[in-house]
Request: fold
Amino acid sequence: MTKKAIIFDFDGTIMDTNDLILNSWQHTFKHFEGKERSIEEIYETFGETLTYSMQNLLPNVETGLAIEKYREYQVVHSDEQIKIFDDIVKLLDELKNRDLLLSIVTSRLRNTTMKYLKSFDLLDYFDVIVTCDDTNIHKPKPEPALIALKKLNVRKDETIMVGDTRFDIGCANSAGIDSVLVNWGVAYRQENLPSEFIPKYVINKPMELLEVI
Reply:
């Protein structure tokens, strides 16, 4: 069936925020622990809400203080450490030319999501934006994607969901939406993962999405 709507993740899929996220975490670790942690440990948090990750990685630090320190770095360095992935604008232009409905479903806060979309002139491409402020249940649970479906007024079989982490794939699969893993973000380890985290499609470049819709 030809798809009518596409749900995109934001960080690591539309925007290359990987360096900013890594450096924000290391800034936070150095402040509270006096040293950095492994990049692999930080990568494991990609796709989670920040509150959940902070509680998990810094359980002995008051979560609000840890998040404040994390965002302190982002406020100063976001403009220099964020960029759009190559060919994303080209892809979005083509999808809108085909009259597809586009949505973002992200575990990021609404205020920073909107800030970056506006800063990079991407906001007008998207018909619906669902952030962690819109639900108390987050990826990999299906609720964020189901909210997007309702707002887009489309069925799950008319939709495809695109992301770079197991949380995106799990969200799509649990919602009954065809899932697409992108390989231009953080490396996604599929080995030994339960079936609910295995994507239906894998693409290596943005324009390859056109082949699966």
Notes: Helices lie at 18-33, 39-43, 50-57, 63-81, 88-97, 110-119, 143-152, 166-175.
